[in-house]
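Fold description:
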Amino acid sequence: MTQIPNNKQMNTDQTLKMMRTLSLNGMADRYEVLLNISSKEGHPDGHTLLAMLLDAEQSSRKRKKTELIIQQAQLRYKIAASEISCSAARGLSAEQWLYLCECKFVEEAVNVIILGPTGVGKSAVACALARQACTLGIKTLYFSTNKLIEEVANAKLKGTYLKFLNKLAKMPLLIMDDFGLKALDTDSRLALYEILEDRVGKGAIIVTSQYPVTKWYEKLGDPTLAEAILDRMAGRAEKINLSGDSRRKKQLE
């Protein structure tokens, strides 16, 4: 014999369906949980119920927005700020890391330069800091420096160079990983200068490199452009000098 649902069951089913229809999924998920709990412990009053549902919807939307920002950042490593090891021996103090994780450097348009030999975790630190920025709602975009130069060259071939520059200029945080691995030609130097010039006072860059800043001049080649580029890249920057054994090598042993 088919059981006829009572009016209360029909009302809750209709309410849940309407929430889903209106894309209030966070609210609907919380409502379902509350229905199961309240059947045993009683119902919250109307004002409390409404507050709980609105809070759930707001939290759900914030979480989804954060997930989208992280996805669009295209980070090389999925690593949280809490997973980064801080120590004086490593060259990254807990105080400096906590300061950076507040991400005020983005708002203040101060770059972050992470230096150190191969394998000490420069890219991991950069990605963890970038992910932290994403969780705070800061739009971010990751590039290996060589890939960025390739994207610039492709944009020029396609006639979308200015559009690409505008996209980068609107990005509050940009990551340039492994800077200096490859010497830059004239077009690449000019493109890099334009990218940096568009960001002065507007956004920040996280740069990683296995070479000290003093070596960047010869990597850039042209003395005049090198001076202009480094002034914009390293003139106002928070520096991290990582040291220690290669973590990549340890993983292979």
